[in-house]
Design brief:
Chitosanase, subunit A, domain 1; globular; mainly alpha
């Protein structure tokens, strides 16, 4: 079992407030979901009967990165929620992209490779950026991603208002 981070329990609570229980919407690309765990992502799991305790284990093991405990609680929750909604790699890449946008043409640090791998260079860059501004940039990237989904598939527009009210 992986390390249970100091921000994890609060992040989990935030995600569950957004995700809720079982839903089987035929237009949802993830297919049936329960507690935000989709049948598409977990074909081996009986999502209809998935318990909250089981969902928490999946989130802890597959979505929460122990790296997030080195970040502010607010940023950790944002990245975790983004990972649940868009994919873990997307959330990690958003962090790296956001910091590259904020590094003032490499005056604060050398551009990060946007590879979704969170390590020492990413943490060093994180420690040099304004956290309130970073949260805004992360939300902007998330918003743009949602817009592109809807622009490319109008059937997804019905989810847009729910998506943009997340963290």
């Amino acid at each position: 079992m992986r390390f249970l981070g100091s921000h994890f329990n609060k992040a989990f609570k935030v995600v569950i407030e957004h995700e809720g229980g079982f839903v089987d919407d035929p237009t949802d690309r993830g297919k049936a979901t329960n507690w935000g765990i989709s049948q598409r992502a977990y074909p081996e799991v009986d999502v209809r009967n998935l318990t909250l305790k089981q969902a928490k284990i999946i989130y802890r093991d597959d979505y929460y990165d122990k790296f997030y405990d080195k970040l502010s609680e607010e940023i950790a929750i944002e990245l975790f929620d983004t990972g649940v909604n868009m994919g873990v790699r997307v959330a990690r890449e958003f962090l790296q992209k956001a910091m590259n946008l904020m590094n003032r043409n490499e005056k604060n640090f050398a551009d990060l490779e946007v590879d979704g791998i969170l390590g020492k260079r990413t943490l060093a860059a994180y420690n040099k950026v304004n956290k309130k501004a970073l949260l805004k940039v992360l939300n902007g990237l998330q918003f743009s991603y949602y817009v592109s989904i809807v622009e490319n598939d109008k059937t997804q527009e019905k989810y847009f208002n729910g998506w943009i009210t997340r963290s």
